[in-house]
Amino acid sequence: GQGAGTASSLSFCTIGRDVIVAPAAQGAIGARAYDQPLSEGIRRVELGVRTDLSPPALVRRVWRNLLAQVQEEPQEEILCRGVRSFTISFYDGTTWQPEWDSTLLGDTLPVAVEINLEIDRNPAQPQQSAPLSADASQTYRITRVFPLACAKPLDSVQLESEGIQ
């Protein structure tokens, strides 16, 4: 992931989990959905802000077939509109980092990920060019920290060798 700006992005791979309705139950009252946890295998997910939309929107893109000979267009879903900023920080066990590339850090995960999202309270109105602090009453801010239980802290020697302070 890349962060520290007003439009971070996050890309990761995960196991697919689609809900499938049993054919016999389709259309029936009280039809039950059956989870198929490995139905599509591993997929790539990306979260980012599309500024070409009006108002800007936080979107999720999903690539379902990572082994295709010709890469398909991702399935895109708008998660929220009126995004003023979307920033991500990564905790290495000592300090918060603006970027994290696990392939450069010995295939390790951060200890925690912090996501900050600022959206307009009324995205139908055009964004004003005033600084965020001047228009704070029109902005909804949310911050969440997600600890990653399967991560282990990087030691300071490893961080220094990777050029991270």
List keywords for this structure.
flat; 4-stranded antiparallel beta sheet; 1 helix; mainly beta; 165 residues; single chain
Provide a descriptive summary of the structure in words.
- The strands form three sheets. The chain has a four-stranded antiparallel β-sheet, with no helix packed on it. A four-stranded antiparallel β-sheet has the order 8-7-9-10, with no helix packed on it. Strands 2-3 form a two-stranded antiparallel ribbon.
- It is 4% helix and 40% strand.
- It has 165 residues and is mainly beta.
Helix-strand layout with pairing:
Layout: E1 10-15, E2 18-21, E3 33-36, E4 42-50, E5 57-63, E6 75-81, E7 83-91, E8 96-97, E9 112-120, E10 139-147, H1 156-161
Antiparallel strand pairs: 1-4, 2-3, 4-5, 5-6, 7-8, 7-9, 9-10
Q: Reading side by side through the largest sheet, how are the strands ordered?
A: 1-4-5-6
% residues in beta strands: 35-45%
Task: State Rg.
Answer: 20 Å
Amino- and carboxy-terminal Cα gap: 17 Å
In short:
With 165 residues, the chain is mostly beta strands.
